[in-house]
Amino acid sequence: MGRVIAIANQKGGVGKTTTAINVAxxxxxxxxxxxxxxxxxxxxxxxxxxxDPGELQPGVPRVTIYxxxxxxxxxxxxxxxxxxxxxxxxAGADLxxxxxxxxxxxxxxxxxxxxxxxxRQEYNYVLIDSPPSLGLLTLNALVAADTVLIPLQCEYYALxxxxxLLGTIRRVKQALNPRLEVEGIVLTMFDSRxxxxxxxxxxxxxxFPDQVFAVVIxxxxxxxxxxxxxxxxxEYEARSSGAEAYRRLxxxxxxxKEQPAAQS
Length: 264
Prior knowledge:
Blueprint: E1 3-7, H1 16-29, E2 34-38, H2 44-49, H3 65-69, H4 75-78, E3 80-83, E4 86-89, H5 98-103, H6 111-117, E5 125-129, H7 136-144, E6 147-153, H8 156-175, E7 181-188, H9 195-207, H10 221-225, H11 233-236, H12 241-256
Parallel strand pairs: 1-5, 1-6, 2-4, 2-5, 6-7
Antiparallel strand pairs: 3-4
Helix pairs in contact: 1-12, 6-7
């Protein structure tokens, strides 16, 4: 039975999609069967894995996760191979209106869960790249997930957003998904030369000693460049500090498979 991990933070620009892409590729390269679901209307995970998202599979009409959520297509019908051992459920501009359409649907917060449950037997990991909001799409991701991986940028205001997200996770756990736990908090865009980064790390580890991943993701120009080429950091610059950090993060995530997830 595969693990379903939502990668979520309602604040944009924290490295959420970068984390989703590179953890998915790293797990796939280690031999695990991985499904990455792009649930963000900006579709950055889709474009970050393909030079031209419209050509994921030439000659086949383009369908996205929207068609599965709203049009009741099967999840298998929208999947596209992205790498060896890695399948992608792509997003597109049509996902922009999904929240409005979901609002009037029965069981609107359960739509993704129903789709994902059918895929658990096929994959070791199902990763969900959530939009930078706490709307219905993110709610669907949290209801479908076993755990939540939270990328946290090393800046002061990120801490305020973290409190709001953890509160949302607690409410979803109580009302809709009793199994939901926090996979962990990963510190991103870390600059060891910057006093603020070090202060944020110390404060977060002090408040959440059992929930912060050991590895931190450095501020690294190669990580910023790789999505524009449709490549993961391992394919773009395998020897960079960003690549090494994401290898270690994926290893930590894999190690959690044998341990209980952190309590939220």
